[in-house]
Amino acid sequence: MLLTLGSAPGGRALIADNTIRHVGPFGIAWSGAPGSVEVRANRLGQIAEYGIVGAFSSRLELADIRDNTVEEVVAARARAAYAIQVVGARVAEVRANAISDVGTSATSASCAGILVAGCRVAQVTDNVLMRIGPASEHTGVVYGIAYGGRLETLDIRGNVVELGQALEGGNDIAVLVGLDGDPIAGLRGMIVGANDHLVTLREAVLRSNPSVMLPFSERARTVRIAGFLAAPEEIGTDPVPPRAGDVAVVDNVLRTTSAMPLALIETTANVTFAQNRVARESELAGTPAVPAR
Amino acid sequence: MIVSSNRVEVSTESEVPAIALFVDAANDKQLPHCTVLGNISSRLIWLNDAPLGGPWKPLNIVA
Question: What is the ipTM of this complex?
Answer without folding.
Answer: 0.95
